[in-house]
Amino acid sequence: MTSSSLDQLDRPLEVLRLSLTARCNLACRYCRPENQDPHHLLTHQQRLKLVRVAAQLGCRRLRLTGGEPLLAADLLAFIQAVKAQDLVEDLCLTSNGVLLDRPMAEGLKQAGLDRITISLDGANPQTVLRMGGGNSFERVLAAIGHAQAVHLPVKINMVVMAHCNGDQVVPMARLCRDQGVELRLIEYMDVGNRNGWQPHHVLTAATMTAQIAHHWPLQPMGRQLGSTARRWRYTDGTGVVSTIASISEPFCGDCNRLRVTADGVAYTCLFASQGTDLKPALHPQQPDPILAQQLTALWHQRHDRYSEERAMASQQTKAPVRPPPPEMAYIGG
Ligand code: SAM
Ligand code: SF4
Description:
The protein is an alpha/beta fold. It has a single domain (3-331), classed as Aldolase class I (TIM Barrel). It is 33% helix and 18% strand. The chain has helices at 44-56, 75-84, 102-111, 125-133, 137-149, 169-179, 205-215, 279-282, 288-301, 306-315, 328-331, and strands at residues 15-19, 61-65, 90-95, 115-119, 154-160, 182-187, 218-223, 230-234, 240-244, 257-260, 265-267, 276-277. It has a twelve-stranded mixed β-sheet. Helix 1 (44-56) links the parallel strand 1 (15-19) and strand 2 (61-65). The protein binds S-adenosylmethionine and iron/sulfur cluster.
């Protein structure tokens, strides 16, 4: 398959989201991770093989995620190896920032990471604690500074739960404007089985941007094809804020992302219940074309569009039916 190969809905494979671990040092209330990894984590060489073959098939971007990817022991060596082989155009990572001290920021930059997204769900320690982030507020603020100090481009992810941190949209917009970083406001999603998601827990992107525009007028920049974020420019020139509206404005139509868990199971949708085990094809004795064939077949048969189906079902006031999906920290977000 090349980048011109398409799935059943004519969508190209362009982004690989690779989870390095399912473990986490936090327990966000919307995510609720395991505190141990699955058996048979992929080795360094297996991950490299996966990225190499995915790149041959058209993946231009690699996002490292988890669980908490900074817990992965060989993280820096892996980033270095991906860069040394020039496998992707854009290599980024999503982290909760707890372990992002200055040496780690320098290590990531030197290894060749292009960008980092740091998650922060409130502009004060009490909200972060309530969201399951423990006492990490000050550390995460410092982490943003460490990334900036080594010139690693930073964005901030904030998951907004209406009943829990819905009052933090404007304070977080202010904090991110002051720090000179882009805030990405994420609608709370029904991923996994443990977070007790209910539709009324969702604060819509439209409500969030209206709240912000009340303080600082916004100009829409739209959503790039294949991107999750709809972006808005502050008209006073202080930067950009974006929304990820998987619930209220699904973007399945141009979804170009393949997710692979830390133990080598591929998911063609964040909301998919069934994954495909890539480990046999990732065995060191199997040549690259075997994996290429498996990924090509998987992508070719892909027809997932769960968020759109959920939106249509909610208009008919009936819940979409699906078997239990895996947890977010396993599939990687
Ligand atoms: N531990 C890292 C972190 O929190 O940034 C990376 C893994 S986390 C699963 C990736 C992203 O998914 C984070 O930005 C997190 O806030 C987001 N996320 C997790 N559960 C979510 C949910 N139910 N709805 C929306 N976003 C969610
Ligand atoms: Fe950990 Fe990230 Fe899940 Fe929070 S969202 S519990 S930081 S994996």
